[in-house]
Design brief:
There is one protein chain. The protein is an all-alpha fold. It contains 5 helices and no strands. It has helices spanning about 10-15, 20-25, 30-75, 80-95, 115-145.
């Protein structure tokens, strides 16, 4: 009854014993030892049931994996672009060609050889755009502080 979550008062009423007597029994070392053993048995049974249930679920997935794969393949040629794209993406992902979600930035420097004319043109463009870029950056800094 204690395992079922009943209080000492409920147990006493059910067994026609006083609550005090039930408390004495429940607090005794013999009862505590037996209670611990019973709890271990119940927990093991629960764990076994969960494992068996998990095994059944896993088996159900395995039994239907081919059917699901065939369904995905069929949907690649769907008239709906969204369904076709989703099926294609899922199949590629399972085949090991997952979408790259993170990009890597590589800092590189290169030496360019340009003509004097191109260098002057580049310098002119930079001179003309520098005030605009600097003004834009200072406005962004002001926005961040506000």
């Amino acid at each position: 009854m204690t395992v079922a979550g009943m209080t000492c008062a409920q147990i006493g009423q059910s067994l026609e014993m006083s609550t005090r007597r039930v408390q004495q029994v429940v607090n005794s070392s013999t009862f505590q030892h037996q209670f611990a053993l019973k709890r271990e048995i119940v927990e093991e049974q629960d764990n076994r049931a969960i494992r068996d249930g998990d095994d059944e679920v896993v088996q159900a997935f395995k039994d239907n994996a081919l059917k699901a794969a065939e369904k995905l393949v069929d949907h690649i040629d769907s008239s709906s672009p969204n369904i076709s794209m989703k099926a294609s993406t899922e199949l590629l992902d399972r085949a090991g060609y997952a979408v790259v979600k993170n990009s890597v930035t590589i800092d590189q420097s290169h030496n360019l050889v340009i003509s004097d004319e191109s260098a002057k043109l580049l310098a002119d463009v930079l001179d003309k755009t520098s005030p605009i870029i600097l003004k834009s950056e200072s406005n962004e800094d002001k926005d961040k502080t506000n």
